[in-house]
Amino acid sequence: MSKSRKAVRSVVIIIIFTLGSKILGFIREMLIAAKFGSGFETDTFFIALTTVSLFRVMITKSINTTMIPVLSEIESKEGKEGKRKHANNLLNIIMLVSLLIIAISWIMSPFLIRIVASGFKGKQFDLAVLLTRIGLPAIFFASVQGVFRGYLQSEMMFTESAAADIPFNFVYIFFLIFLTGSFGIKGLMVTSVLAVASQILIQIPGVRSIGYKHSFTMDFEDRYVKKMLYLIPPILVSAGISDLNKIIDRSLASTLTAGSISALNYSNRLGGLVTGVFVSAITTVMYPMFSQEANKGTYDGLKKAIIQGVNVVLIITIPATIGMIVLANPIVKVAFERGAFDANATYMTAGALVFYAVGLVGRAVRSVLHKVYYSVQDTKTPMVNGAIAVVVNIVLNFILVKFMAHKGLALATSISAIVTALLLLYDLRKKIGSFGFTKSIICGLKSLVASVIMGIVVYFLDINLINYMGNGVISELLALLASAGSGLIVYSILIYLFKVEEVNWIIRSVKDRLSIKK
Predict the structure, then answer these.
(1) What is the C-alpha separation between 189 and 172, in angstroms, rounded?
(2) Are 278 and 316 in contact (CB under 8 A)?
(3) Closest CA to 417 of 390, 448, 379
C-alpha cells in the first residue's frame, strides 16, 4: 500500500475510533454524575484525578512528542534492530523514572493538594490525599503506554493507539454500572488506574507484530536518550504556557457576569470537536511522515508533506469555521439548552463560539506546524512562539474584555492562535527555506469561496426549516442536521469543481483502497 493510501486509511480509522471514544466518554461522564452526583466526594475525586493527570499528561506528551523523530533518526542510521534496541532501553528508563515520580508524589501528596485545592480542609483534604495516592500508579502505566504509542506510530501503525480509549471508557462504564455500590468513590479512583492500564493491553499485539521483545537492559549513556532529555524541557514549558493562558482567561471571566466562565467552557468544547477529532487525526498520521522526511538528505520531501498537511487542514477547518459562525445559535441550543441551561446561557455561549471559531484555522495550522518543528527536533521555536502568544493573548484580553466581555476573551484567544501560526510559518521558512506556501494560500482562497457560498445556503435553509417544522428539540435537531448535511454536500461539490489538488488526492486514495478490496 502506498504512503498516500495508508495515510488516508489511518486518518479515517483514527476519526472513527475518536468519535466512538467521545461517545463512550460522554456516557462515562453521565454515569459518574448519575451515580455520585455533584458534591463533596465528586469534587474531591476530580481534584485528585487532576493532580495525577498533571504528571501523567506531562510524561506522555513529552514521550510522544520527542520519541517519533528520534526513532526515525535511529532507524535511518541503525535500521529496525537498532530502533528496537534503543526503544527497549528507553522503555526501561521511563519505567524507572515513573516509579521515582510516583514515590516522590506519594510523599508530596499533601503539599500538592494544598496547592491544587487550597480550600480543602479536614476530611475532604484527607480524602483528596488518599485518592491521589490511590491514583498515582496510573503514571507508570501511562508511561509504558506512551512509549508503545510512539513506537507504533513511528512504524505508521495507528489503529492500536486510536482504539486505546475504547477499553479505557469501557472499564469506567463497567465499574459505574455494576460496582459503585460496593466500592464507592475509592473504587472509582482505582478504576481510573485500571482504565489507563487497559490501554496497554490493546497495544501489546501491535508491538509484538513488529518484532518488539522486552528485555531488562538499561543504558543511561545512550546518546538518543540524552537527546530526548534535551528536547523535553521546552515541551514542558510550552505545556505550562498553555495552562497559564487558560488560567488567565478564566480569572478574567470570573470578574464578569455570572455564567461567563461556563459560556467559555461550553463554547470551547464545541469548537474543539473539529480539532479534537479531525485535525488531531491528520496531525497524528502526518507526524511520523514528517519525521521520516526530515531525516533524509534534503528537506524536499518534508516541504511537500507540509503543504499537503496544511492544505488538508484548511479544507476541513475553513468550512467548519463558517459553519460554526452561521449555525452557532442552533448548535448550542440543540447541544445544551435544557434544564438550568436557559435561552440566556445559549445566547452567551453562542456568542463565544462565534469568536472561538474565528481562530479555528490558526489553531489547526499551528498544530501541524508544531509537529513539523518537532520532526526536525526543534522544540525551542514552538516554546518561544508560545510565550509570544501568551503576551499577545494577555494584552488583547485586557483590551477586548472592556468592550466585548467574555466574547472578547474568546476573540483574544483566536487572534493569539492566528499570530502564533503566522510566526511559526515565518520561522519555518527561515529554517528550511521556501516550501511553496503560495499553494496553501490558493487552496485556502478556494476553500473560503466555497465555504461562504455554503454558509449562505445553510443560513437561509436553517431559518426556513425552523419556520416550517416549528420549535422543539427533535424539530431543531432535524433542522440542524439537514442544514449541516446540505452544507456539506454544497461545499464538497464546489471544492471538487474548484479542482483542489488535495481533494483529488483523497478521492484517488479512497478509490485505490476500494479497488484493493475488490
Answers:
(1) 10
(2) yes
(3) 390
